[in-house]
UniProtKB/TrEMBL annotation:
One of its GO terms (cellular component) is membrane. Residues 1-20 form the signal peptide. It comes from Psophocarpus tetragonolobus. Residues 25-63 form the Leucine-rich repeat-containing N-terminal plant-type domain. InterPro entries: Leu-rich_rpt, LRR_dom_sf, LRR_N_plant-typ, PGIP. Pfam families: LRR_1, LRR_8, LRRNT_2. Keywords: Glycoprotein, Leucine-rich repeat, Membrane, Repeat, Signal. It comes from the Eukaryota. Belongs to the polygalacturonase-inhibiting protein family. This is Leucine-rich repeat-containing N-terminal plant-type domain-containing protein.
């Protein structure tokens, strides 16, 4: 083989990795800039400019085929250690094919939710959890019509719950637990689109009555626990609904629990530490999927229904009520 031929072969081999790299060059450039804007955290050491960002070795990065090339679809940054406080990286808006964005367990992530996120016109899932992000939920999110899931749990967000959230046409899940939201639940929350099934607002400073409009929702999971809500929450129940879990503990709700309808697929019911009265629903023993029940610290009375999974419920689930009786509590007195 001539020296020229050998040179050509070596040149081809030298450029083969670059030619075979799946990662879009612009996406790679943006990811490296994001890393820089976060202070080059050690957790992102796998983000090496000499390697392929789409070879499943870059921490938190997932790619997918798009127009005969690969683009970054998912950025999931969890437990990234930031020695110093940093805001959400400004370059995040330059990943145009991003469908899922997640920042999780990053306590030194500070500041507000930046408008640059609005550039992510393909985003379906936005999750910012267990950070120190503060401020209000920004209005620009109302223009992101592709959003299906929002999770802003465990941050330092404040202000009132935005009335426009139900206007997102594709949203099916909203989690705002453990923040500093205050004021009432907006009446508009009863007009989430069909298919909306997941609402969790626990651990905030919400006050007032639950709006009657929420009766229209058919939620699989609802968590309003640990707020200062009051009044009648029975409208969240219904035998025709498909509710799997209801958490209403540690509020000031007051209604007749014995008159509520229960979903046949109910698994968890926690209404402890409220002001409920009446008896326990007679349908409880027929719930084949029930694994957790807590009605403690209320004003309930009467005999505990027997049968089914009720035998697995401990006595603590009934503690501190007016006059509940029957197994596992003392036998009811007969007069």
């Amino acid at each position: 083989m001539s020296h020229l031929s050998i040179g050509v072969v070596l040149l081809v081999l030298a450029f083969t990795p670059a030619l075979s790299e799946l990662c879009n060059p612009q996406d790679k450039k943006v990811l490296l800039q994001i890393k820089k804007e976060l202070g080059n955290p050690s957790n992102l050491s796998s983000w090496n400019p000499t390697t392929d960002c789409c070879d499943n070795n870059w921490e938190g990065v997932t790619c997918g085929a798009q127009d005969q090339s690969y683009r970054v679809y998912v950025l999931d940054l969890t437990d990234v250690y930031l020695p110093k406080p940093h805001p959400i990286p400004p370059s995040i808006g330059n990943l145009p094919y991003l469908k899922m964005l997640r920042f999780n367990m990053i306590p030194n992530m500070v500041g507000t939710i930046p408008p640059i996120i609005a550039k992510l016109t393909n985003l379906r899932s936005l999750s910012i959890t267990y950070t120190s992000i503060s401020g209000q939920i920004p209005l620009f999110l109302s223009q992101m019509k592709t959003l299906e899931s929002i999770d802003f749990s465990y941050n330092k967000l404040s202000g009132n719950l935005p009335h426009w959230l139900p206007s997102l046409p594709n949203i099916f899940s909203l989690s705002l637990d453990r923040n500093r939201f205050s004021g009432p639940i907006p009446d508009s929350f009863g007009s989430f689109p069909e298919g909306f099934t997941y609402l969790t607002l626990s651990g905030n400073r919400l006050t007032g009555n639950i709006p009657a409009t929420l009766a229209k929702l058919d939620l699989k999971i609802v968590d309003l626990s640990k707020n200062m809500l009051e009044g009648d929450a029975s409208l969240l129940f219904g035998s025709a609904k498909h509710t799997e879990r209801i958490y209403l503990a540690n509020n000031r709700f007051s209604f007749d629990l014995g008159k509520v309808g229960l979903s046949k697929i109910l698994m968890i019911l926690d209404v402890s530490h409220n002001r409920l009265y009446g008896t326990l629903p007679k349908r409880l023993p027929s719930l084949k999927h029930l694994i957790w029940l807590d009605v403690s610290y209320n004003n309930l009375c009467g005999e505990i229904p027997q049968g089914g999974n009720m035998k697995d419920i401990s006595d603590s689930a009934y503690a501190h009520n007016n006059c509940l009786c029957g197994s596992p509590l003392p036998t009811c007195k007969r007069f």
